[in-house]
Amino acid sequence: MRVLIVSESFLPQVNGVANSVRHVADHLVRTGHDVRVVAPGPGPERHGDVPVVRVRSVGLPGYRSFPLGLPDAAVERAVADFRPDVVHLASPIVVGAAGLRSALRHGVPTVAVYQTDVAGFSRQYGVRVESLIERWVARIHRRADRTLVPSTTSLHQLEEMGAPDLHVWRRGVSLDLFGPDRRDDDLHASWAGPDDDVVVGYVGRLAPEKQVRRLVELADVPGTRLVVVGDGPEREWLERRLPGAVFTGQLGGVELARTFASLDVFVHPGTRETFCQTVQEAQASGAAVVAAAAGGPLDLVEHGRTGLLFDPADQLSLRRAVVAAVRDHDLRDRLAAYARTEVQSRTWASLVDELVDHYLAVLPSSGAQRAIA
């Protein structure tokens, strides 16, 4: 099958959309499919055996290191030249909208993957156009042949937007990379110090939409050391207010896996996650998880069994949940063990095989008769 993936983000960017597209492209190629990616630049024009068509971009206001794609004739040329069997729209908003238009024009069926709450994202950056963005996102997903959502919360959100043919398609986790065997006792000891503190960590972008400023609520939890992994526009603010924390910067690959496995407690304070891949990676790594009872984590964390959920509306709830995990070593071990068991079947290979079934489901009807705006 010839699959054109039109994505709002791709390598060298490090985020959920780029990482998911990388895993999808890699597995599709391994299983004999012909794949091409269209994504905002700058970046390499090949990823292994996959050609990457780069489109124009601008830096996102307040987050200049994140390239925001622009409508570009390169999208139309990619569809016309490659002649795909299906167009995969990864978190479509701008480049993806252009990909949808081109697919409709050429009679190619589309599968849209909803992955980013762009409206919520814009509000965190002070851009007061949330309702306009929601209408735009709804229009894209109503015109796609099929939409895949990562969580129950996202499913309800898209249902309210009137998007048809919705299916839950979650994310895989690289079990060959993330696991308790990556734990580095020396690294943990360097963080824990002579008092053998419990190591509490956050991994992800240090950006407003992740609500990382709530980490300050954990600054003085007795018997803990806070480790912050990642980079972004909120790093300077956090460093000023968390002088006792360890800031590692952005990590990847084995170094990231080693860091995950060397945490005792993983914390994710954000409430706008459509899935929350870092929760899944922490669970695979053997860390006890504390996450907001909102969005994607509701599907990934069974409170008291595979992690702890806190009430984001209660200003004391996050701290209470972390304190509970910190004080009870047996609880941490139980949460980690049950969570590790739960993630064992969530491989990228199985998830991409499921994705191919969705591609096949839309092939008989391309949606070519729909009006092109």
UniProtKB/TrEMBL annotation:
<dbReference type="InterPro" id="IPR001296">
    <property type="entry name" value="Glyco_trans_1"/>
</dbReference>
<feature type="domain" description="Glycosyl transferase family 1">
    <location>
        <begin position="186"/>
        <end position="341"/>
    </location>
</feature>
<keyword id="KW-0328">Glycosyltransferase</keyword>
<dbReference type="Pfam" id="PF13439">
    <property type="entry name" value="Glyco_transf_4"/>
</dbReference>
<dbReference type="InterPro" id="IPR028098">
    <property type="entry name" value="Glyco_trans_4-like_N"/>
</dbReference>
<feature type="domain" description="Glycosyltransferase subfamily 4-like N-terminal">
    <location>
        <begin position="14"/>
        <end position="176"/>
    </location>
</feature>
<protein>
    <submittedName>
        <fullName>Glycosyltransferase family 4 protein</fullName>
        <ecNumber>2.4.-.-</ecNumber>
    </submittedName>
</protein>
<dbReference type="GO" id="GO:0016757">
    <property type="term" value="F:glycosyltransferase activity"/>
</dbReference>
<dbReference type="Pfam" id="PF00534">
    <property type="entry name" value="Glycos_transf_1"/>
</dbReference>
<keyword id="KW-0808">Transferase</keyword>
<dbReference type="InterPro" id="IPR050194">
    <property type="entry name" value="Glycosyltransferase_grp1"/>
</dbReference>
